[in-house]
Design brief:
This protein is of the alpha+beta class. It has helices at residues 52-61, 93-107, 113-126, 130-141, 160-167, 183-202, 257-265, 269-276, 281-289, 297-315, 317-324, 351-368, 370-376; strands at residues 6-11, 14-27, 30-39, 44-45, 49-50, 64-65, 73-76, 80-83, 220-222, 247-249, 252-254, 331-333. It contains 13 helices and 12 strands.
Length: 378
């Protein structure tokens, strides 16, 4: 039920995580489609904040509606109004309450009814007694019917192997109108769970075909600074764009990548020359801010910066070594002047950091040999 619907409320200065789902409220004989908020502390907002016991009463009285009458008047968030025609609903008060209870467990990091069912199944598979099968069956039946098919996370088989397993050979599957489980069906279910167990055991070691999704190296943070001179032994401060390392592009040499960036951002050649001659990257920015911007600059600035960073690290192998030494670390680049270029405590878009990671990957490809270098620029 949680999915990506993450929200919270604040109580006594404490952030209480929550989630929401759609529901109908019946008020004065009319039905209103609204958001039902569920919070980790067990409170539910259904047009008012109530305890779980009070929510159960709201369900019992029909305030939170799970049955929709033919011809009933309905509206949705002041967007539309209509009458129900041939309404169908799969929820009952008991099912919705069970789903809400599961959601509270999830929000607190506890096993929900599905988790408890699968734990009971594991107990049975380890010790296949009828008592353990009965416990697994009871745990399966405690899972809300609306979510049972998702218990195994298998949209091809859904929960059929689970139903076969808890029924056993010759038993009736939960929800089956007739027929009994054959030995062949039961053996197939056992094989399914054995394979599933192997897959789960191997999952932590499994690496996607294209490589790991997360970096192995700890993140590198480049704090905002105003470097005035080159270091005898460059460290990560040299990865700042305004670090004094001359960059030559299109026949013009600029004192730093920042100088080059700001010079290329202005329209008039005379202004561009003044920016290039600025005493520091910060002064270059100030001069550029006071000059007319080149047309379409916002649309090309990331491509320009990528080109300048490639030039910087190709022309300064010692600085390229500093960048390569960061491995596969996420690069967080602080820029007090720009939430576009800077990460700024998670408030910015961190384009500087992202482009540094791109150029680092290209340098690694170039170091790997001709085929790697060709592929990096393809």
């Amino acid at each position: 039920m949680i999915g990506n619907r993450i929200t919270h409320r604040t109580a006594d200065g404490v952030r209480i995580p929550g989630t929401w789902r759609h529901a109908f409220i019946c008020n004065g004989g009319s039905y209103f489609l609204t958001d039902l908020f569920v919070y980790a502390d067990g409170l539910v907002d259904c047009w008012e904040l109530v305890t779980l016991e009070e929510f159960e009463e709201k369900l019992r009285t029909g305030w939170v509606a799970t049955s929709l009458p033919e011809g009933g008047r309905a509206s949705a968030h002041h967007l539309a109004a209509w009458r129900f025609g041939e309404p169908q609903t799969w929820l009952t008060p008991e099912l919705l309450l069970a789903e809400v209870r599961d959601t509270i467990d999830e929000l607190n990091g506890r096993p929900d009814s599905t988790g408890r069912c699968l734990a009971a199944v594991d107990v049975f598979l380890a010790d296949r007694t009828e008592a353990n099968r009965a416990a697994a069956r009871a745990a399966y039946l405690a899972v809300p019917e609306t979510v049972r098919r998702y218990a195994l996370g298998d949209m091809d088989r859904k929960d059929r192997p689970l139903r076969v397993l808890v029924a056993g050979p010759g038993g009736r599957m939960p929800g089956a109108a007739d027929g009994r489980v054959t030995q062949a069906e039961y053996d197939d279910a056992l094989a399914y769970f054995e394979e599933r167990g192997r897959w789960i055991a191997e999952a932590p070691k499994r690496v996607p075909a294209d490589g790991a999704a997360k970096p192995f190296a700890p993140a590198v943070k480049l704090y905002h600074s105003y470097p005035q001179r080159a270091l005898e032994e460059p460290d990560k401060r040299a990865l700042r764009h305004d670090y004094p390392a001359a960059v030559t592009v299109d026949g013009t040499t600029h004192p730093s990548a920042a100088h080059a960036y700001w010079a290329l951002s202005v329209a008039a050649p005379a202004d561009r020359a003044r920016v290039t001659a600025a005493e520091s990257g910060a002064q270059a920015r100030t001069l550029a801010a006071g000059a007319a911007r080149r047309d379409g600059w916002e649309q090309v600035r990331t491509a320009v910066m990528a080109r300048l960073l490639r030039a910087k690290y190709e022309q300064h192998p010692d600085l390229a070594a500093v960048l390569l030494a960061t491995g596969d670390a996420t690069v967080l680049y602080d820029d007090a002047d720009s939430d576009f270029w800077g990460d700024n405590g998670g408030r910015g878009r961190n384009w500087s950091g992202r482009l540094l990671e791109l150029v680092r990957s290209e340098l690694q490809a170039h170091r790997a040999g001709p085929s790697g270098a060709d592929g990096a620029r393809a």
